[in-house]
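Consider the following assembly input.
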Amino acid sequence: MGMFESAEKFEEILAGFFRHMGATKSIADKLLASKLIIRFNYTDPDLVIVVDCSGDQIDVRPHDTETKAIVEMSMSAEVAHRFWFGKVNLTSALTRKEMVAKGPIPKVLKLLPAVQPAYAMYPQYLDANGYEKYNITRAYRPPTA
Amino acid sequence: MLPEFFEFYNPTKIVYQIGIATDLKPELDIIGIKKYFIISDHVISDLGLVQKVADGLANVGFETVGRYLDVAQDARLNDVKKCADLVKASGAEGIISIGGGSVIDTAKAVNILFSEGGDLVDDYSGAHTLTRPLKPHIVIPTTAGTGSEVTMAAVIYDEDNKEKLAFPDKFLLPNLAVLDPEMTLSLPPKMTAATGMDAMTHAVEAYVGIQSSPISDVMAAGAIELIMKNLVRAVENGDDIEARGGMLVAATMAGIAFTHSMVGVVHAMAHAAGAHYRVPHGVANGILLPYGLDYNFDFIYEKLARLAPVMGVAAQGISDEDAARNVIAAIRSMTGKLNELGALPIRLRDTGVPEDGPAVIAEGALNDGSSFYNPRPMDEEELLPYVQNAY
């Protein structure tokens, strides 16, 4: 069992965080400028989330397997979680295949500076929304089976 | 202090010798194939360097089954497709690329299609999408700058969609890098200076970068020492074979360093200057390197200070801040000498950047992927005065 007890809980947390980023103007403006449609494929638990930046506002769509994405990012839920704490070395994660990125890499790299402020937002978001136990910057204890 | 995690992967065999590009039998015997396709450009071919290598191959029983010489100044997607078709039809078993970064990157991308088939954009866009080794690729660099002979990426320009595509993949690392200083003797002084400062920027940014490791540090510092000793010499006298050799090895070491440790604000600014004002990449790096170090100073001075002995500016009993300032001054002194030799501009205004250009460059730098790896968190307003200083 991974860090999240269910796909529903992981979706609640991560899709909620994506929507929180989408409502943060400084980040949303840059994401919208990219016009990218990104599909995140997560495992353990399995979950698909599309973040669509092609319109006037960020649209976060869990379970969307139909939309043709420009970029597909695949990773475990734990890697995704650590990424939003700024605790994943992206280059290493890609070379070690902890993350698999398909699509135009320069466009993905351009997004990185835009999402960097989100690293500080993620633990605050977890604490503010009742997800303290997932905040690994507090006192992370691995879940027991 | 050691990083929490690092990885070092460099399977490319590197050989160095004056004249070795025409005497590759021991290395090619180990690779074990006989038929090679050469990828280069017309400038290199007109200098006789392609024929020289082909003759060397023929003399020891290897066959050149085809040549593609139409590689443009930027590696282009249509060239990759055309060239791959020719390579496939030629009966080649491997590729030899002879040239600078564009030629080498073209050959890397060609090798994907040659080895695996398919469509480069549809099937291989992404990071590390390849699943097995490609066919043998031997690289003979004719510039001392990009380090592409030891990096795991190919950057290809899609002229139809007017965008740069990047293919980072460990299977793109060439099998063999042949460092023969004779192959760089014809590089003109301005190109020597610009490509040399490109290598210097790779090394310095890799050394102070947030992903540096003790292994990449050794490569970066070694490259910097060689560049300090040899770049001005190679510009002053292009026939100085020892200086040419030093620069060739330095560029390769810098390539190994930055393919692991990445680059930062200087490259971010140089990419923006290139995209908006066509400032050649090495020239932009040469101009902007000291200003990028100034911008990062508070975040890097302790480590930068360790380069002082390497750069020949060590002094007893001075603070890290002063030692780091000496390092930046040494870089300025070198670019100043290159400028006096007429080989390198040291102001953006001398490269066609307009008066309002620094603001555009600062904004562009902030949106460049390299800024993600910069030691100092990037801020457009804070960066702008440094770009203006470089103007």
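Helices of chain A lie at 7-22, 25-34, 77-83, 90-95, 105-115, 118-128. Ask yourself how this observation constrains the way the partners meet.
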